Each structure stands twice: as structure tokens, then as C-alpha cells.
Amino acid sequence: MKVNKVIFVDDDADVRHAYGQSLTLAGYDTTLCSVFIEATDHITPGWTGVVVTDVRMPGKDGFALLQRSRKIDADLPVIVMTGEGDIPMAVRAMNEGAYDFLEKPCPPSRLIAAVERALEKRRLVLENRRFQAERKAIAHARTAEPAAGLTAQLAMVERLLIEACLKDHNGKVAEVAEALKLARKTLYDKLTRYGIDPTDYR
Fold it and tell me: What is the pLDDT of residues 131-188, one digit of tens each?
């Protein structure tokens, strides 16, 4: 599973594009956002990336984004950045579940190092979830269809895994295909075969 996506959120366009360029040049699939709502549009329970957010923003701030991100997925790493850092703010960020706290101006190398650590944590979490889903699907298939042939049991496991992945990715077929390492057409064929409607998971 390729886990290399970064959402970078900052209302300052110059800061946003400067750090965004550094992240892109480092090889990350980077999405730049200026406000809370833009960022939350991209976050799903099985999203293969991490969030980096500034604290001070118009409307809902970085702490609101941290809380929302953790509500969507409690294991999603969120790195909090601010140009007005102080000890109480750093303590609050960590107490609320931030993966890391960085003060601006932050050297790009330090940001990239933090992102790399966060992405590795995310990769391990998602791999463990997939492993647990596979074990659960196999156990369910054996229990539900003890007399069925191997082909029927494998089909049930495949269906359960697809449904679990659709739930993780809010029914977004392109993301599910990427997560399952399937061509999009192949996934659509399987959805048709099993009578699965992706919109039921949105």
C-alpha cells in the first residue's frame, strides 16, 4: 500500500505554496488547502496520508481540524504548525492527539522528517487494519458457509473486503481501486457481479 499523501493547510498563500513545493519535491502527493472545509473534503477513515495544519486560520482553526480529523479516523496523524508557538499551545496540541507540533518558520527538512515519520505510522496502521479485515472476512466466510466450496468462500471473502474498503473510503471507487491494487474497470466488474452500489457507502 502506497502511503504518501499530505494535506497541507495554511491560509497564508505564500507559506502554503512554499511548503507545498518542498513537500512535492520530496516526492509526496500534496494537496494544498487554505481553510478547514477544504481539508475535510479530502479526509476519509482509510485515507492514505497525513495532515499538516496551521493553527491560526479564519473560521475554524487548526485545533478544530485536528479534532475533526481524529473524529473521522482516530489514528490519522495530524502535524500542527504555528508561528505563534508557546508551551501551553504545544501541550494542548499533544493532549488533543496531534502527532507532532512544529513552530514556524520551520526548516523544510524538519517538516519533511516529521511527515515521513507520520506517514510510516499511517502505513503500519492501515496495513494492520487490512490484515485484521482479511482475517475477519475469512473467519466469517468459514462460519457462514461451512459447506460451501472453496470458490464460494473466496468470493465471499472478496466481497467482504471490497465492502470494508468502500466503507473506509466513503464509497470513492478510485480510492478503493488504489487501496486494493485493482484496475478501476476490474473493480467495477466486481461491484456489478456482487450487486454492490458504492453510493450506499457515501
Answer: 887 777 777 766 765 556 677 777 778 888 888 888 888 888 888 888 888 898 998 9
Give the closest residue to 106 by CA, choosing from 37, 178, 18. Answer: 18
The CATH-assigned architecture of domain 145-201 is Orthogonal Bundle (1.10)
pTM: 0.75
**What does the DSSP assignment read for 119-186?**
HHHHHHHHHHHHHHHHHHHHHHHHHH-TTS-HHHHHHHHHHHHHHHHHHHTTT-HHHHHHHHT--HHH
Domain ranges of the chain: 5-121, 145-201
Q: Report angle CA 43, 114, 77 to the nearest 5 degrees.
A: 30
Q: Return the CATH class of domain 5-121.
A: alpha beta
